[in-house]
Specification:
- It is built from eleven helices and four strands; from the N terminus they run H-E-H-E-H-E-E-H-H-H-H-H-H-H-H.
- The protein is α+β, with helices and mostly antiparallel strands and 238 residues long.
- Strand 3 (76-79) and strand 4 (82-84) form a beta hairpin.
- The N and C termini lie far apart (39 Å).
């Protein structure tokens, strides 16, 4: 992150965040899938944090995000003198700081697979992201079915089936709710919005994720938002 000597207001913003413990900077809950992941991980495990919501697609969005990180994107976690501006890096940091909470599975094999599927989610599935943008207020059954999105849906179903059968025991991906479920929760939101048909076991998994208290709270707060991001709404398929 760049120094803030040229603009004292930036250093003031960071100083306030650092003094108040953990501060998570996110975008609109209706749209920001990247923000949803660490927010869910921290909320689901009862980790206290201050929340700063920056409305997306506004004239001052970039400037407001730059008060916390020069990367220009959300989410950002401010933890004392540490600033982390990547959703997976935030979750890894939180897991290290709160090892007793077991944000990752405790079993070695399960943990290795959890990290692998999270990394795949973090780095891939561009077809799904571009064709089926996250928008919790929308209801678009059958739309966004590009070939690339369909391929991503198939791969995600493979991942879920393997995780649930090997480690999930018909609950969450690795038994107890974990970072892996937090990372795939925005996919569940997309499947809900776009009416993706799933095998019964996978639909049941989506239902469990949707009903998880942390996810249900995110959804409720997303639907209560009044700010709209025109750029994100314009990405919705016709």
């Amino acid at each position: 992150m760049q120094t803030t000597e040229l603009d004292p207001s930036l250093s003031t913003t960071l100083a306030r965040a650092r003094e108040s413990g953990l501060t998570l900077v996110i975008g609109n809950k209706n749209y920001s899938s990247w923000s949803m992941r660490p927010w869910l991980a921290m909320t689901a495990f009862g980790i206290a944090f201050n929340e700063v919501v920056i409305a997306l697609d506004k004239p001052d969005t970039g400037a407001r995000i730059a008060e916390y990180s020069g990367a220009g994107r959300v989410p950002v976690l401010v933890a004392g003198d540490i600033t982390i501006w990547d959703s997976l890096a935030i979750c890894e940091y939180i897991a290290e700081q709160f090892p007793d909470l077991q944000l990752w599975p405790s079993d070695v094999a399960a943990r290795a697979m959890a990290r692998s599927v999270v990394a795949e989610m973090h780095a891939g599935f561009g077809g799904l992201r571009s064709a089926m943008s996250m928008n919790l207020r929308a209801h678009l059954p059958g739309r966004g079915r590009t070939d690339e999105a369909q391929g991503d849906i198939g791969r995600i179903c493979e991942i879920w089936e393997e995780c649930l059968s090997r480690f999930g025991h018909h609950d969450y991906l690795f038994g107890a709710f974990s970072i892996a479920d937090a990372f795939y929760a925005p996919v569940v939101m997309r499947f809900n919005t776009y009416g993706v048909s799933l095998a019964p076991a996978l639909q049941a998994y989506c239902d469990r994720v949707t009903q998880h208290p942390a996810v249900a709270r995110w959804i409720s707060e997303a639907l209560a938002e009044t700010d709209r991001a025109d750029g994100h709404d314009s990405e919705l398929p016709d």
